[in-house]
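Here comes just one.
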Amino acid sequence: MTATPSITVAALYQFTPFEDPAAIRGPLLALCEEVGTRGTLLLAREGINGTIAGSENAIAQVLTHIRALPGCTDLDVKFSYADVMPFNRMKVRLKREIVTMGEPDIDPRLSVGHYVDVQDWNALIAEPDTLVIDTRNDYETAIGTFRGAVDPATARFRDFPEWFRAHREELLVGKKKVAMFCTGGIRCEKSTSFLRKEGIEEVYHLKGGILKYLEEVPQEESLWDGECFVFDERVSVGHGLEQGDYTLCRACRRPLTEEQRASADYVEGISCPLCVDERSEEQRARYAERQKQAELARRRGERHVGADSASRK
């Protein structure tokens, strides 16, 4: 019999006005540390977003605290499970936006697309007059997406508005509806709000995101190909939210296949085939030192908190 995973992972977000996010940060971080959760939560004037992991009881305590914050009673939460802790530490950060789009007039609380339940998604995206757009970044779309979806090939979510404006006319030829999707739903809150502001009325998005779809739709009925990138040590998940086959390059934070890890350009913690030509010798030297410290910590049976500090940029 397979043992039940002991770690609960909660991905959450809520758009709601926080007058003073800094005042919320201290008590929230203190509780997370007290009950032993790890992960990252982002706070901004527009709300809260993030993913945390811990025991079922610890997660329940943190969610109770968040739901007591102004406007968070109906907090959007998606649960999954892991055999080992998928995060190295607990962070609660103050940001300008809980998901960065860079469009100051966009407010999902005022205008957003039509939510589509996972059970109705296949029928919508199969309609010939529906334009399907993957709103995620290029390193995410590279390992999986819905059949027939348009990939913007953007490096950052804030590049999405410029991409859409540049390609709008060609994208909408013969299309009456636009259906968009992302990992957990939060980026689509903003992307559908953005399209509404651009004058497009028939805008739809997958409620609960890819994670909800993979959790509830049987693989034999699925229109999803590949795996879904997640922002923790699991790296990717597949149908049933089972952990996938990808690992992470610690230099560029991109997901890697077994074949890519077998490349001569792959040096653990320092480079991979995707980033070997993007980094300077100075950067690689810094990564090498970080990797050395991570290996020393591993031998001591400790977690190296700098292991997740590499950037894609």
Summary: The longest strand covers residues 7-15. The radius of gyration is 20 Å. Residues 281-299 form the longest helix (19 residues). The CA atoms of residues 134 and 192 lie 12 Å apart.
